[in-house]
Recover the amino acids of this structure.
């Protein structure tokens, strides 16, 4: 069970309906501690990697390496806070770079087995079977595959910009779930809509999922959403105007990432874990359903 300190704090302090600071009940505030979710006024706000923390959570620290328990400080979404809020982001970035080096070095021998393709196509190395032939792993392997320097550079720059704040706010497990399911969502929509012999690759679907999640998080924390919305709009314009871009992957990732993030950060604390698991399971089932339907169409 998650810690819920200060249950008596946070009652409306005035006609606006905003809660009062848990330490200064007469001061209205729209900001909450990213760990314990208690309302905090400007005097009590202590800047953190994402948002603000209350004095008690800062004094409590992020743990000493012992196994987490119910009283451990929590992220906004209920995850256990970590000493390094960039660890999963670094691992994902490293995996993408490692696959890129392998693809550049190995050429078709590495690229062909990882591409997202619906049905068999022919390359210089011979026939390449696709998802419809049972190679469902391509839906995920293609998310880590890049062939061009500009492609991987843009995606990894976006990952490094968006990843750490989301990882700090969601926690490691929820963040990696968000990333992988967003990537799978993009792959599934591409598989459903694109021509069977079209091929796709890249982390863009997962990155667009991070964009959607960032917008949800900023809205939840009452931050100015205009910067991320402008950046998202620019990327969507590029998605639909540049040739050679698999727009299906971008939109699929955006939809899944936004939905997951909403479920993660808006789930009530009393049933938070149950609801978050249900949201993640629902997203996965929707992806599987799309893939099964498309496979039946093609076979």
């Amino acid at each position: 069970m998650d810690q819920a300190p200060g249950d008596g704090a946070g009652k409306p302090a005035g006609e606006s309906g905003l809660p009062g600071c848990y330490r200064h009940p007469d001061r209205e505030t729209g900001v909450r501690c990213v760990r314990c979710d208690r309302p905090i006024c400007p005097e009590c706000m202590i800047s953190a990697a994402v948002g603000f923390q209350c004095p008690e959570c800062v004094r409590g620290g992020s743990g000493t390496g012992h196994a987490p328990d119910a009283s451990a400080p929590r992220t906004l979404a209920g995850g256990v806070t970590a000493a390094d809020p960039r660890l999963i982001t670094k691992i994902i970035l490293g995996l993408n770079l490692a696959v890129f080096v392998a693809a550049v070095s190995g050429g078709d021998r590495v690229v062909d087995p990882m591409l997202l393709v619906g049905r068999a196509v022919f390359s210089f190395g011979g026939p390449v079977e696709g998802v419809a032939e049972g190679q469902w792993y391509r839906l995920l392997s293609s998310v880590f595959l890049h062939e061009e320097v500009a492609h991987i550079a843009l995606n990894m720059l976006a990952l490094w910009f968006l990843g750490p704040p989301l990882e700090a706010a969601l926690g490691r497990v929820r963040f990696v779930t968000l990333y992988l399911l967003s990537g799978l969502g993009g792959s599934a929509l591409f598989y459903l809509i694109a021509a069977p012999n079209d091929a796709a690759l890249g982390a863009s679907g997962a990155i667009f999922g991070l964009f959607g999640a960032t917008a949800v998080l900023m809205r939840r924390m009452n931050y100015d959403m205009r910067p991320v919305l402008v950046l998202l709009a620019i990327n969507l314009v590029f998605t639909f105007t540049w040739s050679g871009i698999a727009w299906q992957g971008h939109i699929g990732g955006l939809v899944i990432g936004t939905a997951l993030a909403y479920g993660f950060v808006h789930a009530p604390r009393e049933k938070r874990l149950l609801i978050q698991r249900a949201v993640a399971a629902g997203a996965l089932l929707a992806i599987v359903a799309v893939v099964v339907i498309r496979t039946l169409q093609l076979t």
Q: What stands out?
A: The first strand starts at residue 46 and ends at 47.
